[in-house]
Amino acid sequence: MKYQAKSKQIRLFKKITVLLALLITSHTYAQERQISIQDALELSYANNDKIKQYNERVAQKSYENKAAKGNFLPKLSLIGGYTYLSENIEVNTSQISSSLDDLGGKYGAAFVTAYGEQIGLSGVSAESAYTTLVSVLGQFPAYPNMEINNQQFPTAALVATQPIFTGGKIIAAKKYAKAELESANIELTEVKDQIANELIERYLNLILIKQIVKTREDIYNGMLKHKEQTERAINLEILPKHVLLRAQVAVANAQKDLNNDLNKETLALMALRSTMNIEDDVPFKISDSITYKAIDLNFDNLLNTAYIKQPVLGLINQKEEIAKQALAIEKSKFMPNIAAFGSYNMLRDELPVVPPKFIVGVQAEINIFNGFKDIHQLKAKKHLKKEVENAKAYALKQIHLLVQSNYTTAKNEEKNYLSLSSTVALAKENLRINTRRFEEGLGKSIDVIDASLLYQKSKIEQLVALNAYYQAVTNLYTSIGEPENIIPFINK
Predict the structure, then answer these.
(1) Cα–Cα 20 to 30 A to 160, which of 139, 168, 297, 363?
(2) Alpha-carbon separation of residue 369 from 288, 327, 366, 393 (angstroms)
(3) What is this structure's pTM?
(4) 63, 193 Cβ separation under 8 angstroms
């Protein structure tokens, strides 16, 4: 846990450092900020609005998880109010007349026992007095209702409730909240993986277009040099004038291709800036490039990593836990709810009927019938649990297919790139030979132009193949939940 906290602090420090550097360089017009792919990734994590959205979702679920812990603790409430009665409360004495007669008989018997001699009833026993009094009182008409003279009164009480047994509902609710928090964290990881994949793809595309532009510039400069050589040969009457037209057309076409790719470079830079969420007035340029590096890809290891780290599987695992706890909550509805309670009446003397100061007890509640609602909900949650189990089985197969597909694509792109290496070498040598032959007066201008176009075509195909190789490896790493693994293979 300490290591994870330290790692988070280091990542946060890196993000702040990159942001401060960009802020400073945004006011420095003489020099652009050099951004590596690692810097670009940190900026994307810090600035991307979608990542911010899911960070807020994680914070939300974190507090909901903490709130679920409160269900285990006692609930303490302060209850207060004011009551007004339209009439005074009356006690219906007809329903308690026998009790009143009994009470009168007991008091009369006690009085006879205590003061019988003084009133001339010394020979009367308590039992006889009681029986006689009760009999006489029973012959009297009904007692009038007793009225309590209090129509308005305040109430205030402190009430505490502590759940003792809820059929597992509280425990299931806590596990449910924890699973939702884990799901939110996994969703955040999934979004970060998507942003990382997009960032790496756009960064590699910008590297590719820059390398293509460099190739176009070399060809354009070569065409200019060839045109100048052609003009000198025509001035010396070594070549006919119509040869210059071919050279001029070749220069114009090379310049057109260069301008088109310069426009593509601008668009690629805009796309990268969008992913990093950097303002247009913040100048920067990328500092990395790519050259071929053989990457050891073991399919079995990649597949096992995917089964552990693929966010989709992680989400399904949490959905499985959520379905399990939802089923436990439904089962708890068939169990009794038992809770201890206590209350303290603070304004008891103000009440018409004076309650005791303290009341404590234990209460149990169980639902007997509610229209079969609980039974149907229980069956629904059982089917939900089976649905998630089937979804997990399907996802495992799809993950296997995805990893296998990306693995095959990466291997094919690598073979494609390697097969073009000899083609580029031959085209480059062919251009050198034809250029040398033309300079010595042994070759034709058209041969130089054709050799230049052939070299340009094969070189760009090789660059595209190299980019496709790295893109395929990036997709492969993303499919196993580790898109950042490609970064060490990109040169600084």
Answers:
(1) 168
(2) 70, 19, 9, 38
(3) 0.74
(4) no
